[in-house]
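Example 3.2
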Amino acid sequence: MMKTFQQFVSEAREIHDREGLGGGTGMTHRTQTGKIGSERKKSELTTQLKQHKGQKKRVKAVGGGKTEPAKTYKPRKDIGTQKPKSSREQQPTRERGTAGLSAREAQKKAYLERKAREKGTKTKTAAELLSKKAKKAVDPNYKGAKASGLTQKERQALTRKGEKRLRDIRLAVSGKKSERELKHPITHKEVARRKKVNK
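Structure, written as tokens:
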């Protein structure tokens, strides 16, 4: 029995989805996990905390200045669904051709563009004007802060110790006996007390 074209196409699609076959440049494909595109998750660190290429680099503090690999993220709920373009870009509200400019408006627009060119300011493109999400500028020299290896309680204790030290210095310099006499509070305890009093 000969297969119809529709049967052939449906079988080819099933094989494509089952084996996770993908297209070439610019084509999306589903992996066996249901994700669209290639799997980019880094592997777990197995032996030591040395950072090698392709290994997981996220770590968490365990106390005492030590770190260990962090748990992997849970898979997203929207895996396997492509986001529509309308969720990223503002869609036109009127039909094509109905938003024509009058002669006066066109003259004003041309004047503003000419002035912008003279000032050297760049005019926004249509894609930039329609896009809802503002692009954040990232400093190319930015380097993330190194993990201290301290837990939240250890960091808090260190902060409190520093506050007490600063308070003692301020009291010694000003000649006052208590932090309550100072105009500006230093420790968390005194800040919380003043807020409670002011309520």
